[in-house]
Structure formats: structure tokens, C-alpha cells
Amino acid sequence: MLQQRTLKTITRAVGVGLHSGQRVELTLRPAAPDTGIVFRRVDLPVPVDIPVRFDSVSDTRMASTISPGGDPGGPKVQTIEHLMSACCGLGLDNLYIDITADEVPILDGSSASFVFLLQSAGIQLQNAPKKFLRVKKAVEVREGEGARLMWARLEPFHGFKLSFQIEFNHPALDATGQQVVFDMGSGTYAREIARARTFGFTRDVEAMRSRGLTLGGSMDNAIVIDDYRVLNADGLRYDDEFAKHKILDAIGDLYVAGHTLLAAYSSFKGGHALNNKLLRQLLADAEAWELVSFADTAEAPRGFAELAPAW
To answer: Would the pTM count as exceeding 0.85?
Structure first.
């Protein structure tokens, strides 16, 4: 049987929120089978649990934000996508995440620190079948026209494969790889995807900070780009780091489904909003998906029965 996974021990991290700039502490705890991933706002007078679900996403501007029942006026946790991406990359099904503020710490701007944190705690197999969300028919969402066109698509596939193409018409980004294809069954998430950092443009920073965004952003946790070049002294971690970060985000955005997808995902210029719209469209059609598990691990997609290698 392909089994569910949680952590062996409790692990903790401290950092600042990218948008809020607030100091925040995370405590990640093992959880029982079929719990899913649950954030717990322990800083509130009465702690509030926020299960990660596709319909708990309440805001997708600049990041993925969740609230109980998707209520935008309720308690929230912002910028969950990098941690969710790491959880998906390691195949973690069940986890409690205690958090002392309304935003997950940005750490180094990628999911690599979360992967290291989770692997340091150890991955525990559980005596319950791991469930996958299998896409049975193609679903697509599109927005805009001409130069503003963007789209995202899910198609049936025995595994989880992602393809993303960026187009920024910017000299620094145009000089890098514009498209990345990644197969989650390759077992190389930690090495090939996790280290890709979020990025932003200096021309946008002042406007965003006037709206209370990117208050915690710096070259320690993001790739910063002016009108011509990357400003970070150490340059890029991958030749195609920008496109790879979009893949990293998409993995985290889609993991709010509650299960790893068995699907081929592709997107052109998409983002958090389009990813959640795609997921909602998929799950609104009962004939487009099903939950499956594998009593015989030999029947599971290639690479999904193995634990991700340690660093």
C-alpha cells in the first residue's frame, strides 16, 4: 500500500513575512492520518484552525491566502504557497502548522528552507492509504486577449507533470529560460525546483509598499530586478530560476486541493489567481476528477512510492 506521510517529530522556524514584515514563528507538528494540512493561528485570543482546502483560499493577489471557509474578513494566513510546495514535494499529507502571525515567513524566498526543515524532522509513514486526486478530463481557464492572454490547463496523466512558460518582455528575464517542464516523479524536486526564489521589480516596490506589501522583502529573500538587470550580487541559482519559481508556486497553489494531483499541468503567464480558478473549475465538475489510492505500490506512478532523498 502507498501510505500517507507526516512528520516524525516537531520542528520550528522563525522569520519575517514578505508582505507584512512581521516576525513570525512556525511550529510544525505531526498529525493523524486523514487530517490534511491545517494551519493554526495560535496568536489569537482563541486559537483558530484553518484547514488547507481549495475553497479556503480567500485572496490570490501577490500570494495565496487562506481563511476559514474562504471568508476574506476572517482570520487568515498569507503566503502559504512555498511551504505548501515543499509539503507536496516531500509527499506530506498530514501536518499541523502553528503560526504566530498572519503570514508564513519568507525565509530565503524559495521552498528550500522548508524542505530542509521538514526533512530534518523526518518523514513518518502512516498506516493509511495515500489518496491522490486524479484528473479524468481536461480543464482549462483563460483570461485576457492578445498580449494580455494567460491560461492554465490540467489534463489526465499517470503522474504529476508541470510545464510553465513565462513572458515578461524584460531584458534580464528574457535572457533566461522561458519555459520549464518538471516531472514530480523524478525525485529531484529538492535539487531542481525548491531553490528557485521569488522575484520582484524595483519599479514596483514603492507602489507595493504604499499598499502595505513587500514590507519584509530584501535581496536576502528575493531576486530583485531593475529595468535592465538582476541586482543580487550572487546572481541566479538556476539559468531558468524565474520560470522554475513559477513551477514552485504552481505546485503549492495546486496542493491546496488537499491531495497530490495525478495530472499534467501547463500554464502560460499564469499565477496564484489563475491556479486557484483552475482548481475550482476542476472540482466543480464531479465527472472531471476522482480520489484514488494504490494498494499495490507497483501500480503507482513512477517515483511516488519512494521517500524524497535527504539533502
So the answer is: yes
